[in-house]
Amino acid sequence: MACRIPEVASLVKEAQEVFQKVFGGVALVAAVAPGRVNIIGEHTDYNDGFVFPMALPMVTVVVGRRVEGSRCRVHTTSPMADKPHQVEFPAPSPSTPLQPGSPSWANYVKGVVANFQGSISGFDAVVTTSVPLGGGLSSSASLEVATYTFLEALTGIHAPSLREKALACQRAEHDFANMPCGIMDQFISTMGKQGNALLIDCRSMESTLVPLSDPSVTLVITNSNVRHTLSGSEYPTRRRQCSEAAAALGKQSLRDATMKDLEEHKSSLSEEAFRRARHVISEIGRTQQAVEVLKAG
């Protein structure tokens, strides 16, 4: 059965009402960032390949205001987030850098605060989201980008470019969630446009909007009911295996390898590493072909 996706305005209103109840007063700033689904290009972003995601109407909202002093308080309304649902930490300074800890959801917020390209004072904030946590729709990147956008509005200090903003959010996940993710999720959450998918070259960091204008095409997202977490999954292992396979082939990354290269070095790879590399090399080609077919109609 199809689920109803809350409108952004209703999520903002919900967050503002919770803010008034939890912190008192009015939230003066609101920021929004979408989740994503990847149409094609799986496990290719960290191999310098191509990915083809699209932003979703499911979003994360952060509302809040500045406060006196250096105390930062953040409250989440998500029942799926680990407890406690409210955290407090000092704004970072050279003498008191932020450190990851628990609950895990707060590490994505703290990571962005730590990687924000500007000075931050104290603030109160409420987070609410329609992106399912652990559903493979990039709830973490959505939270990171919404938090960075919130800080931009709060301070008036903006990232030099959307690319730099996405990279800062990626560093937040690397440093505070201990997850060596690729760039896809943060890029699409930062740069996605309604009615378009985004072809991303994960080596050059160049991206191209591709219209999804064919009314006969519908993308359906189904819930497998399998809880997805990068930090607790085989993701780091897969990334390491791909890096080792590229090295065995004498390549900087699997982006530079061909199926012929892979077959010639098959004996130097484990069966699992061979299958990982075969998927990545072929998937990079499939992604480019899929985009060309879509463009051609």
From TrEMBL:
Please report the stretch or stretches of sequence annotated as the GHMP kinase N-terminal domain. 107-193
Q: Which GO terms describe its cellular component?
A: cytosol
- State a single Pfam family of this protein: GalKase_gal_bdg
Keywords from the named record: ATP-binding, Kinase, Nucleotide-binding, Transferase
Q: Spell out the Gene3D superfamilies in the cross-references.
A: 3.30.230.10, GHMP kinase, C-terminal domain
Keyword Signal, does the record have it?
A: no
> GO: which molecular function terms?
ATP binding; galactokinase activity
Q: Which residues form the Galactokinase N-terminal domain?
A: 18-66
Extract the InterPro entries matched here.
Galactokinase, Galactokinase_CS, GalKase_N, GHMP_kinase_C_sf, GHMP_kinase_N_dom, GHMP_knse_ATP-bd_CS, Mevalonate/galactokinase, Ribosomal_Su5_D2-typ_SF
Cite a single GO BP annotation.
Answer: galactose metabolic process
Q: Which family does it belong to?
A: Belongs to the GHMP kinase family. GalK subfamily.
Q: Which PANTHER family match?
A: GALACTOKINASE-RELATED, MEVALONATE KINASE/GALACTOKINASE
> What's the protein called, per UniProt?
Galactokinase
Q: Which organism is it from?
A: Scylla paramamosain
